[in-house]
Write a structure and sequence with these properties.
This protein is globular. It is 42% helix and 19% strand.
Length: 266
């Protein structure tokens, strides 16, 4: 590993002893070697630290924080890589050659900044993301945060994650980047296996997320845009879609929905 790696893979943890090993192992299995792992732990009281595999690629630091986004901000300041990727405990890379393929894409496309994103696998269901981001797509559907690679310059240009958000700071960051003309580059491969099931998927979390999304809409979208997009969303049966995408619906319905969306997003 060099002192100036291409990638910094950031893992933020707190009492994640049952999950962190699989996440870090999925990084260490990568065939590409120009990367570092930055583990920011919020002073876990269980044996999270003991579960982290030993590797000279891992830089671990512990300090109290106010939550996951505060921990991510601290890790960004520690990261040495040109491109930053965030894997939450329990999430994994989709394959052993993800970093190799992203690095090849950076070289072949001569990418020096911006955001690279790909597809993701959520709860065993393949989710294809669009090759071109539009304002309406981002209004309706946040990109999977774990499928994105951020040039570190994005954070120096736009600032860190907004800690006034409890659940949607990553969504706020994505929309802010898009509205500030940060370039987005699509790579047609699955990047991550997203575990889900965190606070954002709970009943209380959904209430908080809904309020925070409304705040984001008001910040980045005009009154006319919000009216137009809400009408389009209503016509597309949003409540039914949310139910189909939730864990309450049969898996075969989720798979059918994503197959249909994947065809549209090709």
């Amino acid at each position: 590993m060099t002192d100036n790696p291409l990638f910094s893979i950031i893992v933020v943890s707190y009492n994640a002893s049952a999950l962190i090993k699989d996440t870090v192992d999925s990084i260490l299995r990568q065939t590409f070697d120009n990367y570092e792992i930055v583990v920011k732990d919020a002073c876990s009281t269980d044996d999270t630290i003991a579960q982290i595999p030993e590797s000279d690629r891992i830089r671990l630091f512990q300090s109290k924080d106010s939550g996951i986004y505060d921990g991510m901000n601290m890790a960004i300041k520690e990261a040495k890589g040109r491109f930053l990727h965030f894997l939450n405990c329990g999430d994994k890379f989709a394959s052993v050659d993800v970093l190799e393929r992203v690095a090849g894409f950076i070289r072949s496309s001569e990418i020096s900044g911006g955001i690279i994103y790909g597809d993701c696998i959520m709860n065993g269901v393949y989710k294809k993301q669009p090759s071109r981001i539009t304002p309406f797509f981002l209004y309706r559907t946040p990109l999977c945060h774990q499928s994105m690679f951020f040039s570190k310059t994005v954070f120096s240009e736009l600032g860190m994650y907004d800690l006034s958000f409890r659940i949607a700071a990553d969504y706020d960051c994505t929309v802010k980047a898009f509205k500030n003309h940060i370039p987005f580059y699509y790579l047609n491969i699955p990047i991550c296996r997203y575990l889900g099931g965190g606070i954002s998927d709970s009943a209380k979390g959904i209430q908080i997320k809904t309020k925070e999304y409304q705040r984001i809409y008001k910040t980045y979208y005009s009154v006319w845009e919000r009216f137009k997009y809400e009408l389009l969303v209503a016509l597309s049966l949003r409540r039914l879609r949310y139910w189909v995408l939730s864990d309450k619906s049969p898996k075969f319905l989720r798979e059918m929905y994503h197959k249909a969306v994947n065809k549209v997003n090709k």
